[in-house]
Write a structure and sequence with these properties.
Elements: H1 2-16, E1 24-28, H2 33-44, E2 48-51, H3 58-68, E3 70-76, H4 80-86, E4 95-99, E5 111-113, H5 114-120, E6 135-140, E7 150-154, H6 155-168, E8 176-179, H7 186-189, H8 191-198, E9 201-202, H9 211-221, E10 225-228, H10 230-242, E11 252-255, H11 262-272, E12 276-281, E13 288-291, H12 304-307, E14 311-313, E15 318-322, E16 328-329, E17 337-342, E18 359-360, E19 363-372, E20 377-383, E21 388-390, E22 393-395, H13 397-404, E23 410-420, E24 424-433, H14 441-448, E25 460-463, H15 477-485, E26 492-493
Parallel strand pairs: 1-2, 1-3, 2-6, 3-4, 4-5, 8-9, 8-10, 10-11, 11-12, 24-25
Antiparallel strand pairs: 6-7, 12-13, 13-14, 14-20, 15-16, 15-17, 17-19, 18-19, 19-20, 21-22, 23-24, 25-26
Helix pairs in contact: 1-2, 1-5, 6-8, 9-10, 10-11
Length: about 500
């Protein structure tokens, strides 16, 4: 009820600033109550919520704000330096609303306090009757090539997506949700909306996403649900290895954004009692597309073989796989092709950008390559731009990465394709070792021997202090390939494994 009153006041305050139906309002905020109030007020007043990715480069942040034509930006005080740095280049922003206290001098008289704005606004608002197909929110992709692309979500798509989250993640009003995935990233996977809709408790971590504060929050608030990317869980479990965390309240931990190594899931469950479930989606799918819950009746001893898969197609989503020639391939778990999606919360176009190469006969081309079996379980083997084709045969970088992550000395692993005179392309294993651990190229290749085809075994290896990441914590393989091409790191080369 308190949040409801405050979001009503926020809508009144925004209307007083001249925000009309269809206007874009940017939010540069962490996961907190003010951000949730904006999630509710902005779409319901007929404006468009534009969550700004605070981890974008300054140039990309400028582009997204100007391209969306944001009229107002709501910003957390801790992020004022970031907004101040790009502010001189913003062409459409007329007002800045600051959550908390900070230096607003660079914004002049267009800056106002969030709390003061709410206090001065009337706690009443005449909510308009909105077309369900009108825009409610937008989010820009965080691809590593070209400018970010805007994806607009309608009121209808977001409402139906809540049902997909509800069923796909098996939520109820008894759950206490801790969304660690940022609210600026695909609406925190829709968790705040679905949780609010169902009457769940929402636990907001704000900007404290490091292992120690997260551990304290989990122990204090006893969440039943966690949602985050693999890097978050990796760090949290490493912390738990030395400072035990009580995960007993957590019913399900959903991990997505990139492939989740089997070793991570097994370690989480066996050492810490944390059950991690893999999920798949993307900005263009709002994002839920598949969830790797095991089939009903699966014995506990066999669950992991299902949980390591990308996921089972979520109700409401249609998926298919297509070959290089565009032909639709069978769901037999063997045929490999690009995964295409369509459904009521899957976008059919980008905002003010033509990208016909991303759409095919009414289907979204996801850029993910893999298989679908007869039970609807998806197994992604690569991104189409990351596919390694050696001597005309596929090599799955995802499978190699997941296996390497299981080595006790490996903290992170990325596998990219690099040019090869004989085979056109060969895999290069890029490794970050755990602190205090040692392993060489020969040891790691021996570790893979027998787990994959002999000709999959990389003969090129690089040991790095860290792997480059995108703004949402995914491995940036485009940058990794560029670093290799520029000779930015040393490559150890072993003798090639003949086929």
């Amino acid at each position: 009820a308190q949040v409801s009153e405050r979001e009503t006041r926020l809508a009144s305050a925004l209307r007083d600033l001249g925000v009309a139906e269809g206007d874009r309002v940017g939010t540069l905020c962490w996961n907190n109550q003010a951000h949730l109030e904006a999630y509710l007020a902005i779409p319901c007043m007929g404006a468009v919520l534009h969550t700004l990715n605070l981890r974008l480069s300054p140039q990309q942040l400028i582009f997204t704000i100007n391209h969306a034509e944001d009229r107002v930006v709501i910003v957390d005080a801790s992020l004022l330096p970031l907004l101040a740095g790009v502010f001189p280049h913003l062409t459409t922003v007329k007002h800045v609303i600051v959550v908390g206290e900070g230096d607003t001098s660079v914004f002049g008289d267009i800056a106002t306090s969030y709390e003061q704005a709410l206090a001065a606004a009337v706690p009443e608002f005449e909510w308009p009757e909105l077309d369900e197909l009108s825009a409610a929110a937008m989010c820009y992709t965080t691809g590593t090539t070209g400018d970010p692309k805007g994806v607009v979500y309608s009121h209808r798509s977001m409402y139906l997506h809540c049902f997909g989250v509800w069923g796909g993640l098996t939520l109820s009003d008894s759950d206490k949700l801790l969304p660690i995935v940022p609210m600026f990233h695909v609406n925190a996977w829709g968790i705040p909306y679905a949780g609010w809709m169902l009457g769940c408790t929402l636990i907001m971590p704000d900007r404290f996403l490091q292992p120690e504060p997260l551990a304290k929050l989990i122990e204090a608030e006893k969440p039943t649900f966690l949602g985050g990317v693999p890097t978050i869980f990796t760090g949290l479990l490493q912390y738990a290895d030395t400072t035990p965390i009580d995960f007993s309240s957590v019913r399900i931990a959903v991990c997505g954004g990139s492939a989740v190594p089997r070793s991570l899931m097994e370690s989480a469950e066996q050492k810490h009692g944390l059950r991690i479930i893999q999920a798949w989606g993307m900005t263009e799918t709002s994002p839920i597309g598949a969830v790797a819950l095991p089939p009903r009746g699966t014995p506990a001893s066999e669950e992991m073989q299902w949980r390591v898969k990308t996921g089972r197609v979520a109700a409401g989503i249609e998926l298919r796989i297509c070959g290089d020639d565009g032909d639709v391939l069978p769901w037999d778990g063997t045929a490999i092709g690009e995964i295409e999606a369509r459904g009521p919360w899957v976008t059919g176009s980008y905002y003010k950008v033509d990208a016909p190469e991303r759409f095919h006969d009414g289907w979204l081309r996801t850029g993910d390559v893999g298989t679908i079996d007869s039970n609807g379980y998806v197994q992604i083997s690569d991104r189409s731009k990351d596919v390694i084709k050696s001597g005309g045969e596929w090599i799955s970088s995802v499978e190699l990465e997941n296996l390497l992550a299981g080595h006790p000395a490996v903290l992170e692993a990325a596998v990219i394709g690099v040019p090869d005179e004989r085979w056109q392309e060969r895999p290069l294993g890029c490794i970050v070792l755990k602190e205090g651990q040692t392993a060489d190229a020969a040891t790691l290749r021996e570790y893979l021997t027998g787990k994959v085809a002999k000709w999959w075994l990389p003969e090129r290896w690089a040991f790095l202090p860290e792997l480059p990441k995108t703004s949402v914590g995914k491995q940036d393989k485009k940058l990794l390939r560029a670093m290799h091409a520029d000779g930015a790191f040393t490559v150890v080369e072993l003798a090639h494994s003949e086929r």
